[in-house]
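Worked example

This section walks through a single chain of length 262. The input is the sequence exactly as stored; nothing has been trimmed or padded.
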Amino acid sequence: MISARSLFQEIVDNDNSYRLFCSIAASGEAQGGWENGRIAALLPASLRDLAPKVTRHGADEDKHGRIFQALMRRRGLTPADVPGETDYTMLLERRGIGLAHDKLRRDEPLTELDVITYLAHSRVTEQRAAEQMAMLKKHFGDHPEVGKAVRMIANDEDNHLAYCHEELLGLARAGHGRTIQRILRECAHAEIAVYRDVSLAVMDHMGRILRWPKAKSAVLAAGIRAMYGYERLIGWRRMVTLRMPERRNALGGPATSAPEFV
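Given that input, the structure is written out below as tokens.
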């Protein structure tokens, strides 16, 4: 029987698949760190109070990238080239989701709509990240090699998701509710399609590295497509609801340091 635990164990146990997994993760986190850093620098005057939290968000993403790099170094591995079809962040940008990198490279202040777009995009993608890390924490939180990193990143992702909920609710109270809901729906529908495509691409690469039988690859691909079907029908709704989180002011303090091995 194929399970999430057995699948990830296969990936971790093989140097080449582990290298690709860590490289994809490190690349995505580094992009997120850069994006948040630029957003913090370009916030409009009316929302400058968000700067410390956006900066903290970026610092956390940078830290996660360093953690995945360190996990590779501990095995004597060097980063692999990240296949374009597995680049979740860039594929979302190409669909017009979030803030375009061209905009972030310019030294022009963002608008309030830009900040709402950033937070809505983050609320959707952080939902995905928090769920993925919760799954890894459940199965590998005590793993001797990756457990410490998984626990730290999972906690950070929960903080990021709480921060997005709280800030978007504040903006909704300020009169932006309809705009927020519209952007959340657009982001969610685009994200579930990109996540499906990236998942299929990653499993295809892993299958070739690990020499999976065609039947196993077909079962995994069918599972990914079935999940997309569920998310397209109803699952996307979990990504667009807003509720006050238990973790209030989750990004109000300084970023936590990376584990000792980084």
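What to look for: The mean pLDDT is 95.
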